[in-house]
Design goal:
By secondary structure, this protein is α+β, with helices and mostly antiparallel strands. It has three domains: 108 residues, no CATH class; 66 residues, no CATH class; 84 residues. It contains eleven helices and eleven strands. The strands form four sheets. Strands 5-8-9-10 form a four-stranded antiparallel β-sheet, with no helix packed on it. β9 and β10 form a beta hairpin. α6 packs antiparallel against α7. The longest helix has 16 residues. The protein is rod-shaped, with a radius of gyration of 37 Å. 13% of the residues are buried.
C-alpha cells in the first residue's frame, strides 16, 4: 500500500471537500486507517492536480477493453494482469521515457507499505431513526437500542457478521448481523417493558396456576386468542395479587367465570367492592336484562302504538 493517495473528491469517499480538513465517508476513512494510508483529496477546481492519472483511463480503455469480451469476471482479471505486465508495463512512457514496470520495480515497489495480515472486511454505514419499540431498521432487519434513544437518528456500521450502532462517535450497542427479523436485548427496554416481555404466556399461566384453578382457567381463556391486548389483560389480572390477597383473587376469578364475564375490569370490580367476601347466598339474584336497559317489552309497546 502507498503511504498517501490523492483521489478526486468523489462523493462515495469524500463527504465534504476542503483543502485543509476534508471530511471522509466513514467506511472510506476506516479503510484508510486500516491500511495506514493518508487520504489527501485533490483541490476543488484544480484539474492540474490529477491530469496524468486520468490520462491512464483512456489508454486502458482503448488498449485493453476496446473490442474484447470474456465469459467471466475471473477471466477479465486474469487478462488484465497479463496486459499490465506484457503490454502496459513494457511500453516506453511518453512523459518519463521509461518502461513503467521497470520503474515500478526499481523505485516505487520498495517504497510501498506491507499489507496487513488479514484483508479488509467490507463494511457499510447507514443512518436510521429509532422507533417507539426501541428498534431501528437496518438492511431488512430490526435491532434494539436503549429506550432513551427513541426518536433519535443513529448511525449503524454493517460488517459481515456484526452490526454496531453509534451515536455520533460513541458506540451504543452491538448485535450479530441477521438477514431479517428482530434482534432484541431485554435490558434496552424500560422497567415496565422488561416486565411485560418477561411475562410470556407460559409464565402467566404458570403464575395463575399457583393462585388456583379459577384464576388459571380465566387467564388461559384470555391467552387462548393469542392477541397482544388479551395478554396485557391477563398480566393486569395477575398484578391484582400485588394489591389483594391471592385467595381473594382466586375467589373473584371464580365468581367472574360463574357470571360469564372474565374481563379484568370485572375481576377488579369484584375485589374493589369486596363482593368476593360476601357469601353467595347474601348476594341479590342477578336481574335479567333484555334488549338495551329497558327490556324488549318497551319496544313491543312502542311498535304497537305506532301501528295504531
Amino acid at each position: 500500500m502507498p503511504r498517501r493517495v490523492v483521489p478526486d473528491n468523489l462523493t462515495a469517499g469524500v463527504r465534504k471537500a476542503d483543502r485543509y480538513d476534508p471530511r471522509l465517508n466513514r467506511a472510506y476513512g476506516e479503510l484508510a486507517r486500516y491500511y495506514g494510508v493518508l487520504v489527501d483529496p485533490s483541490r476543488v477546481r484544480h484539474p492540474q492536480d490529477k491530469p496524468r492519472v486520468e490520462r491512464g483511463v483512456s489508454y486502458a480503455r482503448e488498449s485493453f477493453f476496446c473490442g474484447r469480451s470474456f465469459p467471466t469476471l475471473a477471466a477479465w482479471r486474469g487478462a488484465a494482469a497479463d496486459w499490465c505486465r506484457e503490454v502496459a508495463g513494457q511500453r516506453v512512457h511518453g512523459t518519463t521515457g521509461e518502461r513503467p514496470l521497470v520503474a515500478f520495480a526499481a523505485r516505487e515497489q520498495p517504497a510501498l507499505q506491507p499489507l496487513p495480515a488479514r484483508p479488509w472486511e467490507l463494511v457499510s454505514w447507514t443512518s436510521a431513526q429509532v422507533h417507539a419499540d426501541c428498534h431501528l431498521q437496518v438492511a431488512g432487519a430490526r435491532y434494539s437500542v436503549p429506550y432513551r434513544f427513541v426518536g433519535q437518528q443513529l448511525d449503524s456500521r454493517l460488517g459481515q457478521t456484526l452490526v454496531e450502532i453509534y451515536d455520533g462517535a460513541t458506540l451504543v450497542t452491538t448485535h450479530p448481523r441477521q438477514d431479517r427479523g428482530r434482534a432484541t436485548r431485554l435490558d434496552h427496554y424500560p422497567e415496565a417493558g422488561q416486565a411485560f416481555l418477561r411475562a410470556t404466556p407460559a409464565a402467566c399461566l404458570q403464575q395463575a396456576q399457583g393462585y388456583g384453578a379459577a384464576t388459571a382457567a380465566l387467564v388461559a381463556g384470555l391467552l387462548e386468542t393469542g392477541l397482544l391486548t388479551q395478554r396485557r389483560e391477563a398480566q393486569a389480572i395477575l398484578r391484582l395479587a400485588e394489591r389483594y390477597d391471592p385467595a381473594r383473587l382466586e375467589e373473584a376469578c371464580r365468581r367472574a367465570l360463574a357470571a360469564g364475564d372474565g374481563r379484568q375490569r370485572t375481576v377488579r370490580g369484584i375485589l374493589a367492592g369486596g363482593h368476593d367476601l360476601v357469601p353467595p347466598a347474601a348476594l341479590p339474584p342477578p336481574q335479567p336484562v333484555g334488549a338495551f336497559l329497558r327490556g324488549p317489552a318497551a319496544f313491543l309497546v312502542a311498535a304497537e302504538e305506532g301501528e295504531r
